[in-house]
Amino acid sequence: MHYLVRTPLFLVLLFSLFISSDMQAETTITSRQALEQTLAQHKGKVVYLDFWASWCGPCRKSFPWMNKIQAEYKSQGFSVISINLDANRALAEKFLVETPAVFPVIYDPKGKLAKHFKIKGMPSSMLIGRDGEIKFRHAGFFINRIPQYQQEIELLLAEIK
Amino acid sequence: MQLAKKLGSKKPNREKVNVKLALTVAATALLGAPCFVNAAETSALNAWSFDTAVLYYAEVDRVTATEAMLGASKTFDDGSVLSLKFTLDVLTGTSPNGAVAQPTTQTFTRPSGNGEYQTPANKTPIYDGFRDRRVQFNGQWTQPLAANYTVSGGVHISKEYDYLSLGVNGSLAYEFNNKNSTFSIGSSYFKDTYNPVGGIPKPLTVMITGSGDEDVDDPTRLGKDDTKSSADIMFGVTQVINRRLIMAFNYSYAKVGGYLNDPYKRLSRVNANGEAVDYVYESRPDSREKQSVFTQAKYNLGGALLKNTMLNNTVLDISYRYMWDDWQINSHTIDSRFYIPIGINSYLEPHFRVYQQSAAKFYQPFLNEPDSLPTYASADLRIGEMTAYTLGLKYGTFVNGGDELSFRLEYYTQRLTNAGFNEPGILSRQALYESVNAIIAQVTYSF
Amino acid sequence: MKIKLKRLLLVPLIVSVTGCANLGVEPWERDLLAKKEMALTSSPIDATFDDHIYFSKEASSGGKGFGGGGCGCN
């Protein structure tokens, strides 16, 4: 798992061309590459990695909160990165029109990343520390557990790299 | 004046929110919770969802029922769900009283024991017209426990003029194998009190005609009311087979005890020529043990039939139930529905159901006069031999961004058949097994 | 009859014990199962009304119910 999270710098350089490019180019890279690039961009930050799909009710509930923490903790070196698992990208895009996201979305229509991270439920999230290690994992999203989720983020943000 | 303007506003969206708001306030008040809901608090509005429905059921020349239902459910932050349901129905019309048709006019005592009514020649004897109202309340709480476990519990209360039913239920579900398999166990218990007009008739006693004095103790009555209790237990396995197919298997066992007669049903006692000599009240055992196995498959045909795989999900729903009991009734039920989306906002759903049952061992359309009375006998066609068909069509459409409006129209026909009884003399020329034909119409709005 | 019943009961048992591990989908492949029309009881209101009608007109009732499948979320 480490090799994926701790991305070598050259990969960043290699694919930085694609990041600013249009959708056409985006689809030509694999979901794994897209994630590696995005993680590399946020190296040294605390990352909340979220797996979601348009058909999942609790996922929809988690979006306002993810937008909120993205805005709240961004300045402290934090980012939400989400991975969409819809088999049909058009459905994900429709979802994002209804429920806009202020954080990066990576498309993984074949579920390769989900399989790699052994996702157990929808949504699923992983909290990655500044050192690139996965510190916490959550299956599902429960509004009454928001204080716990935020406590974990604050704990990791407080850690010195 | 701004307020007046607001009140005068006819924007459908606002009205919808207001209805939902009012219902939310009502539901919250009902729970005894502090109620500070304002229109801006959309989260509170989103938490409750409502179902409203009206059903109209009408049999040709028999019973007509109108049933209205209001359901409210709320999902809490921890995933618990509370659902409340109120049902009101009105039943009017007539129902067969169990006696056989005759070529002559027949006279029956009213269920109350006061007065009489007559059935014309060659007509199936029916009760005098009746009207009944029923109110029902159901409450159910479902709560996720530790990961993969869900518990649920509920109560049921229903009251009509001559009947009270109280019930509780509980169930536990365990999901495993990546939530692809679910094992469930559930149980329920009901306690009903029957308080029929005129009291509880004494089984197999001869109905008295021509009486009318209320003060005289009626020898055909046992008392004012009686009770019935039912307990059942059910086991179920649900299995996701693949992305398009899910299957369910259930087994259930039920035990019913107490007063199981229909106090308004009688049997004709006929002579060798089929002529009614008198009428006796029916007599059923005071216990019944039922078991059933049930299996269901739901298959999403997706783009197999229609080109656009993204939006069109045609779903085939087919189930089969086999029920058997110690009254020797066996039944087969096949129920199928086919969900066909039309465009992105509507759907059509044809429905087809076939039901077949054998007669209870003590079922008989009439009694023969010289024979001694059996211990148990009932001429209630509902426990006789029959095949029933339902053919229906439902149309649903999504409006106002997610609300669902649907219409359902069905035709139900019950073909009653002779389970091998001889029809002596004049009875061979009478219709003893008149079929039941009914129309079912329903409108549902969910928001 | 009893033997028949026992055999009938064995089917789901075998399915649940042996077959299950190989059957099913990954959590992110439940898009079609998550649809309302794929729920085992997709129209609970219709089901309630139907149960009431058939309970009043026929000698059999119940045996259905229970959930499963669906979104598999949370």
Describe the structure.
The complex is a heterotrimer of chains A (161), B (447) and C (74). With 161 residues, chain A is an alpha/beta fold. Chain A has helices spanning 2-5, 9-19, 23-26, 31-41, 57-73, 89-98, 112-116, 146-158, and strands spanning 46-52, 78-84, 105-107, 124-128, 134-139. Chain A has a five-stranded mixed β-sheet with strand order 3-2-1-4-5, sandwiched between helices. In chain A, helix 2 (9-19) packs across helix 4 (31-41). The longest helix of chain A is centred in the middle third of the chain and has 17 residues, at 57-73. The two termini of chain B are 31 Å apart. Chain B contains three helices and 23 strands. The longest helix of chain B has 19 residues, at 12-30. Chain B is elongated. In chain B, the strands form four sheets. Chain B has a 16-stranded antiparallel beta barrel with strand order 1-2-3-6-7-8-9-12-13-16-17-18-19-21-22-23. Chain B has a three-stranded mixed β-sheet with strand order 15-14-20, with no helix packed on it. A two-stranded antiparallel sheet of chain B has the order 4-5. With 74 residues, chain C is an all-alpha fold. Chain C has a domain at 25-64. Chain C is elongated, with a radius of gyration of 16 Å. The chains are: A alpha/beta (161), B mainly beta (447), C mainly alpha (74). Chains A and C meet through helix 5 of A and loops of C.
The helix/strand order of chain A is HHHHEHEHEHEEH
> End-to-end distance of chain B, in Å?
31 Å
**Spans of chain A of 5+ residues with little confidence (pLDDT < 50)?**
1-26
How many DSSP E strands of chain A?
Answer: 5
